[in-house]
Amino acid sequence: MTTEEASLGGSTIVTDDYREPAAPASAWFALAVLIVATLFGFVDRQVISLLAEPIKHALSLSDSQLGIVQGLGFAVFTTVLVFPLSLLADRYDRRIVLALCVLIWASATAACGLAHNFTQLFLATIGIAAGETGLSPIIYSTLPDLFPYRQRVTANFIFYVAAILGVASGLGFGGMAIGLLNSQHAHLPLWLQTWETWRLAFFVVALPAPLLVFLICFLRLPRGETRNLASAFEELAPDFLPYLRSQFRTIASVYSSIGVYTFAFGAAFAWMPIVLVRFYGLTPASSGIALGLLIGLGSLSGILIAGVTMRFIVPKYGKLAPLRIGRISMLFALVPGLFLIAAREPWQAYILVAIQTVAGVAAGSLAPNLIQDLSPPRLRGRLSAIYAMITVPIGGASGILVGVVSDLLHRESRALILAIVIVGTPAWLLAYLLMRQAERPFLRTLQFLSTTSAEQVNTKES
Questions:
Q1: Domains (ranges, CATH) in the chain?
Q2: How far apart are CA 317 and CA 369, in angstroms?
Q3: Minimal CB count within 10 Å: which of 42, 62, 177, 398?
Q4: Using CA atoms in the order 222, 224, 226, 229, what is the torsion angle rounded to 10 degrees?
Q5: pLDDT value at position 383?
Q6: What φ, ψ does residue 282 adopt, rounded to 5°?
Q7: Are 44 and 102 in contact (CB under 8 A)?
Q8: What is the longest distance spanned by two Cα atoms in the chain?
């Protein structure tokens, strides 16, 4: 760390935060319950995909309507609702907000089983999106209050792994529930046998909600600064907007670097299953299984590498460590993309995908630490919400752009691969440059937060 960086407060931030006492057992219990809530949410969402075909026939839906139910509704309403829910998480009792979110999405899941047309089903999926949207800002704003910095990095890693494995577990548990209902349908009580299996499946996956709410009520989560719902929204401007203005350079630098990284990651992986089928002659099933296994192992490897690296460099670089690891990871991810054009065999493409996965996940797993570190405790939920509002649409845009470029290059024999390289390579490089540029403003924000916290302590003592 340079003399200038130390003068900005970097060295004090390193030593003080890294020597904090270990978190109590109640913090780890809270993390376990939050992970269970996340997995429960994935099951409720994935069961819609698993039941898409019987739902289509039962409700006479078109493929376009199924696409709206599974994709558009979740994306749009997640973006719209994430900020107000994060505001409540910042300003109200987080246990109550989280419990209400669970009850909302579980009730909406059960409502899917009662739907008799597209409109009713779409409205039910909006309810699922509304409930699940609150999870991310609540969890990422809560972890810094439960764990000291050293253990918070570990807690973020654990939650990140749970999120990665959540889709697979959602499909697995959802599939098990559907299979069990199919095999036992004839043995159910007569009044339940009159219900179609797909409807019963929605009811079954919603059943754990009361138990989960019961566990949430016993968590020791930090309370917000107000108990009044109306005043929570009225107090948005006095603290949130001034902080955005004063720390705009840092927020813009960090968020843009993560956003561009998400764009590059989306460009690399959104079309890879199609590339394997179109250019290497694999079947959709074989390419899906191979990619799923490869990305899963690569993701776990990336998280492990990031965790081990953090353990060694945090004592030197402190909270700057995630940016340092992130920018190096961008360079490692950039190189395989350049060689993708020359890959002639499936195994060559697999190696390149594995390298990009490891590097990309190593950077992505550390992003929550950056958001938490630049956020005052009372604003963490809202700043996490803005992060989600930026990265979700940007990540989806890269896949669309790859398709557009591929259509423009349709005369080329490997147009799609070339499009991935054209769109993704500059994004990896730009993400590296933005992460490098973000270091100085990030350190200044850390110093600002450290000074502000010290002044608040002195004011209370006086």
A1: 1-234 (1.20.1250.20), 237-462 (1.20.1250.20)
A2: 14
A3: 62
A4: -120
A5: 81
A6: -80, 155
A7: no
A8: 77
